[in-house]
Write a structure and sequence with these properties.
Layout: E1 2-5, H1 7-24, E2 30-36, H2 40-47, E3 54-63, E4 74-80, E5 88-96, H3 100-111, E6 116-125, E7 137-142, E8 147-148, E9 164-166
Helix pairs in contact: 1-2
The chain binds inosinic acid and magnesium ion (MG).
Length: about 170
């Protein structure tokens, strides 16, 4: 495994994102809606860098990617995101890859009556996007490789690594 982003590099960047978000959401009813499970570590680190009143909510989005599936096969469970109506929502995910997940979730949260919806990701993969979506906040641009750690998994493993690493060997991407 090759380390792409060290723990220190990530924390520096997350601190900067926190300051940016803090400046942008002064006096606003901020709810950070984190997409399970990949954004958990980012969520924990990021909210501690934002000195504003804020709420935390959780969404689960599972896509069943197969030969015949499309973006609309995203199954959303928002049982832990009960009250986004009238709130300024910041959707938080680990990585922007094709963009299908986040763009579908932006629509979903808007339909639930959010006042505004912005997006934040730790990583965006170069050259992979299929859906136009410019994240409002993002940490790092990375090359098109399968990465794990800092919340990101391969087959539900490696999420606990404090850094982001490129996984080599056979894997889905
Ligand atoms: P998208 O809908 O294609 O943008 O995919 C976003 C989701 O795919 C993320 O929330 C991740 O769970 C997963 N994903 C995409 N690329 C990677 C990767 O390199 N490592 C781990 N998970 C990834
Ligand atoms: Mg994932």
């Amino acid at each position: 495994m090759k380390i792409l982003l060290s723990e220190a590099q990530i924390l520096d960047r997350v601190r900067a994102l926190g300051r940016q978000i803090e400046a942008d959401y002064q006096g606003k009813p901020l709810t950070i809606v984190a997409v399970l499970t990949g954004s958990l570590i980012l969520l924990a680190d990021l909210i501690r860098q934002i000195q504003l009143p804020l709420r935390v909510a959780l969404l689960q989005a599972s896509s069943y990617k197969g030969a015949t599936t499309t973006a609309s096969d995203l199954v959303i469970n928002d049982a832990f995101a009960p009250d986004v109506a009238g709130r300024d929502v910041l959707l938080l995910d680990d990585i922007l890859d094709t963009g299908h997940t986040l763009s579908t979730l932006v629509r979903h949260v808007s339909e639930r009556g959010a006042l505004s919806v912005r997006t934040a990701v730790l990583l965006r993969k170069i050259g992979r996007q299929e859906v136009h979506l410019e994240p409002d906040y993002w940490g790092f641009e990375i090359p098109d490789a399968f990465v794990v750690g800092y919340g990101l998994d391969y087959d539900d493993d490696y999420r606990h690594l404090p850094y982001v690493a490129v996984l080599d060997g056979p894997h889905a991407s």
